[in-house]
Amino acid sequence: MQKAISAAAAAALIPDGASLMFGGFMAVGTPERIVDALVARGARGLTIIGNDTARPGHGVGKLIDAGCVARVIASHIGTNPVTQKKMIAGEIAVELVPQGTLAERIRTGGSGLGGVLTPTGLGTSVEEGKRVIDIDGAQFLLEMPLRADFALLRAHEADYQGNLTYRLTAANFNPLMALAAACVIAEADEIVPVGVIPPDAVRTPGVLVDHLIERPR
Amino acid sequence: MDAKEIIARRVALELADGSLVNLGIGLPTLVAQYVPAGISVAFQSENGVIGFGAPPPEGMEDPNLTDAGGGFISALPGAASFDSGMSFALIRGGHLDMTVLGGLQVDAQGRLANWMVPGKLVPGMGGAMDLVVGAKRVIVAMQHAAKGQPKIVERLSLPPTAARRVSLIVTELAVIEPTDAGLVLRERAPGVCVEEIVAATGARLIFESETPQMPIGAAG
Asked: What residue ranges of chain A have pLDDT lower than 70?
């Protein structure tokens, strides 16, 4: 971990056209201050990777509203009519990935593995263009690892070394994404001194986190 | 009893004591209201919790505790929360006893389509493909027809959610089980005759001379 930076400074680190993994499930567990700073910066051409695009005005939905996004990789966009409208208009390219496959592609992307063999998607349009591999008579789809330029996480507590905890259903994709990007930036509800978080409670080790977003002043 | 209540009440009779169950968004969530007395079930929500309960009183909601539809929930004593990797390992890895999903179509082979209508509706599959592939039992809870068109059809015209045959179809008219031989009519709703079900179904149904009524009490 380097040092705490402002959300605006984080947004300035992220160039137009970058690929971003965003934690969150219907905006629960999404780092809203980073989202707001990207909107304020007028970011363009972003690829966003995450479970969904929330609703207009919520979570990454704000990036869609503001025209920051060129490409979406998600399991579900049904709750955001703006994403659907922009997809149909050709303004945003959308790749839909089954939710469990998305989780595993991100996990393998961050774990040094060559891909995932999953039965999910066999016999559906998800199979198109992919290799089907036979393992002892059972068929699996080969799904490739997924990585991004940045992972943007929402945590409950962070300590000064970047160790992170999460709360309840706000964890979702965050712990997986912490491994799968070149630069990891975490926004926490609380920043606490080293030693406050017991080792067993740490779900993302601080060594994975490059920057923390400073407390709001 | 309206169509949705009939479906939810009948699906609830499929809940086994001590089982882990995932309810899809929409109609399937109603099933939680009709868990039979004496049956204890743990509900999973794929965004990362087992053991969730009814929404908290207004003003008491926790912004970090929601279901897969983004609605506020509570956590019952004994609940566990986890990340999306664990959640789908539970689903795909054979640890989930049953899932209840909505449907757009089911065909004579028992294949489900429930995630898109090409050119019209492209919401995405969310967790549905993993749920159909991984759950031990897959129950489709849906209305028998949509806009006068049968949803149970000889062959899917919509993209399938998985190649797998679902375990059971529950509608407001009937309980139908896909088998090697085809779709078997197991039960009819209270006050509904077999002819009505056959007329509302777009695929061949196999039925015995006597089709029992759904054990859900009299129609209200």
From this structure: 1-2
- Domain assignment present for A44: yes
- Assess contact for A31 and A187: CB atoms under 8 A: yes
- Asked if A169 lies within 8 A of B65 by C-beta distance, the reply is yes
Q: Which of B14, B46, B172, B187 is catalytic?
A: B46
In a domain, A113, yes or no: no
> Does ipTM come in above 0.90?
yes
- Annotation marks residue B5 as catalytic: no
| pLDDT (mean) for B184-191 | 97
Tally the domains of chain A: 1
* Whole-number pLDDT of residue B1: 87
Residue A38: CATH number of its domain: 3.40.1080.10
User: Which residue in A107, A168, A189 has the most chain B C-beta atoms within 10 A of its own C-beta, making it the best mutation to test that interface?
Assistant: A168
Angle at B195 between CA B194 and CA B196, to 5 degrees: 90
Alpha-carbon torsion, ordered A50, A51, A54, A59, to 10 deg = -40
Q: Where are the alpha helices (DSSP H) in A135-203?
A: 174-177
pLDDT of the residue at A2: 64
A21 in a structural domain: yes
| Domain that residue A188 falls in | 4-99+145-213
Do residue A100 and residue B127 have CB atoms under 8 angstroms apart? yes
The answer to whether A100 contacts B49, with C-beta atoms less than 8 Å apart, is no
Domain made up of B3-34+99-206: CATH architecture: 3-Layer(aba) Sandwich (3.40)
Per-residue pLDDT at B219 exceeds 60: no
CA distance A195 to chain B (A): 23
Is the pLDDT at B207 greater than 70? The verdict is yes
Retrieve residue A138's tokens.
Answer: 């059972």
